[in-house]
Amino acid sequence: ELWLSDGWAVAQSEGWESPLYWWQADGEWQEFTLGGPTTVDPARPVCHVSYYEADAFARWAGARLPTEAEWEVAAPPPSWAEGGDGGNGGPAHAGLRQLDLDVLRPRAADPNRSGPASLLGDVWQWTASDYAAYPGFKPATGAVGEYNGKFMCNQHVLRGGSCVTPPGHIRPTYRNFFPPGSRWPFCGLRLARDS
Asked: Least C-beta-crowded within 10 Å: which of 7, 63, 134, 177?
Protein backbone atom coordinates (compact mmCIF):
# COMPACT_ATOMS: atom_id res chain seq x y z
CA GLU A 1 0.00 0.00 0.00
CA LEU A 2 1.17 3.50 -0.77
CA TRP A 3 -0.85 5.42 1.81
CA LEU A 4 -0.73 5.29 5.58
CA SER A 5 -4.22 4.25 6.71
CA ASP A 6 -4.92 7.48 8.63
CA GLY A 7 -3.63 9.53 5.68
CA TRP A 8 -5.84 7.67 3.22
CA ALA A 9 -8.85 8.25 5.49
CA VAL A 10 -8.14 12.00 5.59
CA ALA A 11 -7.50 12.20 1.83
CA GLN A 12 -10.78 10.42 1.10
CA SER A 13 -12.87 12.37 3.62
CA GLU A 14 -11.49 15.72 2.39
CA GLY A 15 -11.53 14.78 -1.30
CA TRP A 16 -7.82 15.34 -1.99
CA GLU A 17 -7.02 14.83 -5.67
CA SER A 18 -4.07 17.19 -6.13
CA PRO A 19 -1.87 19.50 -4.06
CA LEU A 20 -3.76 22.25 -2.27
CA TYR A 21 -4.38 25.31 -4.48
CA TRP A 22 -4.13 23.28 -7.72
CA TRP A 23 -6.97 22.81 -10.22
CA GLN A 24 -7.41 21.92 -13.87
CA ALA A 25 -8.61 24.46 -16.43
CA ASP A 26 -8.81 23.74 -20.15
CA GLY A 27 -6.69 20.62 -19.73
CA GLU A 28 -3.85 22.43 -17.92
CA TRP A 29 -2.95 22.32 -14.26
CA GLN A 30 -3.14 25.72 -12.58
CA GLU A 31 -2.05 26.79 -9.12
CA PHE A 32 -2.90 29.76 -6.98
CA THR A 33 0.25 31.58 -5.81
CA LEU A 34 0.88 34.77 -3.85
CA GLY A 35 1.12 36.45 -7.25
CA GLY A 36 -2.22 35.02 -8.39
CA PRO A 37 -3.19 32.07 -10.59
CA THR A 38 -0.54 30.60 -12.89
CA THR A 39 0.13 27.45 -14.88
CA VAL A 40 1.90 24.75 -12.87
CA ASP A 41 5.59 24.63 -13.80
CA PRO A 42 6.80 21.02 -13.54
CA ALA A 43 10.39 22.25 -13.02
CA ARG A 44 9.44 23.86 -9.70
CA PRO A 45 9.15 21.82 -6.52
CA VAL A 46 5.66 20.67 -5.63
CA CYS A 47 4.22 22.72 -2.80
CA HIS A 48 1.26 22.50 -0.41
CA VAL A 49 1.28 18.75 0.14
CA SER A 50 0.70 17.01 3.44
CA TYR A 51 3.04 14.56 5.12
CA TYR A 52 0.62 11.84 4.05
CA GLU A 53 0.86 12.87 0.38
CA ALA A 54 4.64 13.22 0.56
CA ASP A 55 5.00 9.79 2.15
CA ALA A 56 2.65 8.15 -0.38
CA PHE A 57 4.52 9.75 -3.29
CA ALA A 58 7.85 8.57 -1.90
CA ARG A 59 6.53 5.00 -1.66
CA TRP A 60 5.12 5.23 -5.20
CA ALA A 61 8.57 6.37 -6.41
CA GLY A 62 10.29 3.44 -4.68
CA ALA A 63 11.91 5.80 -2.19
CA ARG A 64 11.20 7.24 1.23
CA LEU A 65 11.30 10.54 3.06
CA PRO A 66 14.66 11.26 4.71
CA THR A 67 14.99 11.30 8.47
CA GLU A 68 15.68 14.66 10.04
CA ALA A 69 19.30 13.62 10.66
CA GLU A 70 19.78 12.53 7.03
CA TRP A 71 18.32 15.82 5.80
CA GLU A 72 20.65 17.86 8.01
CA VAL A 73 23.75 15.92 6.92
CA ALA A 74 22.83 16.48 3.25
CA ALA A 75 22.21 20.21 3.71
CA PRO A 76 25.08 22.48 2.71
CA PRO A 77 26.05 25.34 4.97
CA PRO A 78 24.52 28.54 3.65
CA SER A 79 27.19 30.39 1.69
CA TRP A 80 25.43 33.71 1.16
CA ALA A 81 27.17 35.11 4.23
CA GLU A 82 30.37 34.93 2.16
CA GLY A 83 28.71 36.34 -0.95
CA GLY A 84 27.46 33.05 -2.38
CA ASP A 85 23.86 32.06 -2.79
CA GLY A 86 23.62 28.91 -0.65
CA GLY A 87 22.58 27.01 -3.75
CA ASN A 88 19.11 28.49 -3.75
CA GLY A 89 19.47 32.13 -4.68
CA GLY A 90 20.49 33.38 -1.26
CA PRO A 91 18.61 35.77 0.97
CA ALA A 92 17.01 37.61 -1.92
CA HIS A 93 15.17 34.41 -2.77
CA ALA A 94 14.82 33.02 0.75
CA GLY A 95 11.96 34.96 2.24
CA LEU A 96 10.11 38.21 2.08
CA ARG A 97 12.97 40.59 1.32
CA GLN A 98 11.87 41.01 -2.27
CA LEU A 99 8.41 42.13 -3.26
CA ASP A 100 8.60 40.35 -6.62
CA LEU A 101 5.73 37.91 -6.18
CA ASP A 102 7.31 35.44 -8.59
CA VAL A 103 10.15 35.06 -6.09
CA LEU A 104 7.64 34.31 -3.33
CA ARG A 105 7.03 30.82 -4.63
CA PRO A 106 9.27 27.80 -4.99
CA ARG A 107 11.85 28.04 -7.76
CA ALA A 108 13.26 25.42 -10.08
CA ALA A 109 16.60 23.96 -9.02
CA ASP A 110 19.77 25.11 -10.75
CA PRO A 111 20.64 22.27 -13.17
CA ASN A 112 24.34 23.24 -13.01
CA ARG A 113 24.60 22.75 -9.25
CA SER A 114 26.31 19.61 -7.96
CA GLY A 115 24.88 17.75 -4.98
CA PRO A 116 21.43 18.20 -3.49
CA ALA A 117 19.73 21.33 -4.79
CA SER A 118 17.00 23.53 -3.37
CA LEU A 119 17.46 22.31 0.18
CA LEU A 120 17.06 25.78 1.67
CA GLY A 121 14.43 28.43 1.11
CA ASP A 122 12.05 27.05 -1.52
CA VAL A 123 9.64 24.69 0.28
CA TRP A 124 9.63 23.20 3.74
CA GLN A 125 10.49 19.53 3.28
CA TRP A 126 8.71 16.82 5.23
CA THR A 127 10.97 14.33 6.97
CA ALA A 128 10.16 10.86 8.29
CA SER A 129 10.94 12.05 11.83
CA ASP A 130 8.43 12.79 14.55
CA TYR A 131 9.03 16.16 16.19
CA ALA A 132 10.68 15.75 19.58
CA ALA A 133 13.32 17.48 21.60
CA TYR A 134 16.88 16.65 20.66
CA PRO A 135 18.33 13.81 22.78
CA GLY A 136 19.54 15.16 26.11
CA PHE A 137 17.70 18.47 25.80
CA LYS A 138 16.83 20.15 29.09
CA PRO A 139 15.22 23.58 29.40
CA ALA A 140 17.64 26.14 30.78
CA THR A 141 17.28 26.92 34.47
CA GLY A 142 15.19 30.03 34.89
CA ALA A 143 14.00 30.00 31.29
CA VAL A 144 11.02 32.24 30.70
CA GLY A 145 7.89 30.42 29.68
CA GLU A 146 7.27 26.75 29.48
CA TYR A 147 8.91 24.18 27.24
CA ASN A 148 6.59 23.47 24.33
CA GLY A 149 7.07 19.70 24.28
CA LYS A 150 3.39 19.09 24.92
CA PHE A 151 2.59 20.83 21.63
CA MET A 152 4.90 18.54 19.65
CA CYS A 153 2.65 15.49 19.95
CA ASN A 154 1.65 13.99 16.59
CA GLN A 155 3.78 16.45 14.62
CA HIS A 156 6.34 15.72 11.92
CA VAL A 157 9.59 17.60 11.36
CA LEU A 158 9.99 19.86 8.34
CA ARG A 159 13.35 21.24 7.32
CA GLY A 160 14.75 23.78 4.87
CA GLY A 161 12.50 26.79 5.25
CA SER A 162 10.35 28.10 2.44
CA CYS A 163 10.18 31.01 0.05
CA VAL A 164 8.21 32.94 2.69
CA THR A 165 10.43 32.10 5.68
CA PRO A 166 12.31 35.15 6.98
CA PRO A 167 15.87 35.12 5.57
CA GLY A 168 17.44 35.21 9.02
CA HIS A 169 15.83 31.86 9.80
CA ILE A 170 16.96 30.01 6.67
CA ARG A 171 19.74 27.69 7.76
CA PRO A 172 20.31 23.92 7.81
CA THR A 173 19.58 23.66 11.54
CA TYR A 174 16.19 25.44 11.51
CA ARG A 175 13.35 23.08 12.42
CA ASN A 176 9.61 23.36 11.97
CA PHE A 177 6.77 21.02 12.74
CA PHE A 178 3.18 20.51 11.64
CA PRO A 179 0.53 17.81 11.94
CA PRO A 180 0.74 15.25 9.12
CA GLY A 181 -2.47 16.44 7.46
CA SER A 182 -1.32 20.07 7.08
CA ARG A 183 -1.31 21.25 3.48
CA TRP A 184 -1.49 25.04 3.75
CA PRO A 185 2.16 25.71 4.68
CA PHE A 186 4.69 25.86 1.86
CA CYS A 187 5.46 22.15 2.33
CA GLY A 188 7.01 19.82 -0.21
CA LEU A 189 9.27 16.80 -0.10
CA ARG A 190 12.66 15.36 -0.84
CA LEU A 191 13.23 11.71 -1.65
CA ALA A 192 15.80 9.45 -0.02
CA ARG A 193 16.92 5.99 -1.06
CA ASP A 194 19.00 3.39 0.70
CA SER A 195 22.19 2.47 -1.13
From this structure: 134
